[in-house]
Design a protein that fits this description.
Helix content: 10-25%
Radius of gyration: 16 Å
Number of domains: 1
CATH architecture: 3-Layer(aba) Sandwich
Shape: globular
CATH class: Alpha Beta
CATH topology: Rossmann fold
Low-confidence stretches: none
Mean pLDDT: 96
Number of strands: 10
């Protein structure tokens, strides 16, 4: 998605969550369009978090956290991807991902710290989140179910969607879209990234 589209929906000084921030490329790109933004970047995979922190260390607007956003506070196993994709790690156990993308393997696991958005905004005294960029490999629904303390301030949410169960227990697209409508967001953009079974969607406050 061209991030310039977000100028219609979020302010110049937006507070942004970049969850599944990987190496920080999206966080840095946000600053190209919103130089006054404050970005909270989450990346739980240890070796990738190290790269994220290094790549963003010269940008005081970007705050990094070696945490996984989830529906509970504590610790959880993460399945770390290798091979075809190093950006497919998830707290959810891989399922159809193994057959649709056989060149992507999950041979490594780690225990990572988890938190909820509700707990995060309380711990770090965050009083608004204008935009959420959620690249959570199937965990988006669980995370948003525990963000009700701050969602009233949120103007837009960008999330991955799936029409097949790439990971065990993920919420499929139609159910996720209905959930988003129930919490007050309508889909305005749907990007197909893989043969009509996987993509990204942008939701804005009704």
């Amino acid at each position: 998605m061209n991030k310039s589209l977000l100028k219609k929906y979020i302010p110049d000084d937006a507070v942004i969550i970049d969850a599944g921030a990987f190496n920080g490329n999206d966080s840095l790109d946000f600053l190209n369009y919103f130089p006054l933004a404050t970005i909270h970047a989450f990346e739980p995979v240890p070796h990738i978090y190290k790269t994220l922190k290094e790549n963003t260390s010269n940008f005081p607007n970007i705050h990094t956290y070696d945490l996984a956003l989830d529906d509970a506070i504590g610790e959880k196993k993460i399945y770390i991807s290798h091979g075809y994709s190093v950006q497919s790690s998830s707290l959810l156990k891989p399922k159809e991902h193994l057959t649709v993308f056989p060149a992507c393997t999950f041979d490594t696991e780690a225990i990572v710290k988890t938190t909820t958005i509700n707990q995060f905004v309380e711990d770090f005294k965050v009083d608004r989140i204008d935009f959420m960029w959620l690249d959570l490999q199937g965990n988006e629904h669980k995370v948003l179910q525990h963000a009700d303390k701050i969602l009233h301030t949120t103007k837009a949410i960008f999330a991955e969607y799936s029409l097949v169960e790439f990971y065990e227990g993920l919420t499929l697209y139609n159910d996720f879209k209905n959930f988003m409508m129930d919490i007050g967001f309508v889909e305005i953009l749907m990007e197909d990234t893989y043969h009509n079974v996987h993509g990204n969607a942008l939701f804005v406050k009704k």
